[in-house]
Amino acid sequence: MTTKPRSQQPAASAATAHRLQDAMKRLRARLRAESGQHTTGLTPTQLGVLASVVQEGPVTAARLASMEHVSAQAIAQSLAVLKAAGLIHSEPDPKDGRKKLMSADPSATELVDKLLTGRASFLARAIDQVLAPDQREDVEKAIELLERLADADLSGGAI
Q1: What is the DSSP letter of 91?
Q2: What distance in Å separates the CA atoms of residue 41 and residue 31, rounded to the nearest whole number?
Q3: pLDDT band at residue 155, thresholds of 50, 70 and 90?
């Protein structure tokens, strides 16, 4: 195994980071297009919030903001749109009447399932048509690495 001198590693890591970021951006855009997400009239952020309500609900707005890594104001805006569309509803939290619990309408669950199925279907077809059988193992390894990157806790060090 050859390693680059330490002075070249940060530049190589930065170049890799840019390539990875670009590839992920392109893949996300392709998944949105292939799933029919554009036809929903909802933004990617609103759909992300909706998917969180479907998966986690009933859930408070504060919990959603934390899960989505956005401000309470941003969640409130998304929730207002989703409520107006009839995709979610709120009810008082039985443990704390000051809080509201957000729940998904069955139509929201159906919509999220349709979008996720569309994305998975595209990826499965792409894997089958583009990758050689021996490359599928590489994809499994890449997924593990991406999961590790997503779970990385860098709070103790400089970014």
Answers
A1: E
A2: 16
A3: confident
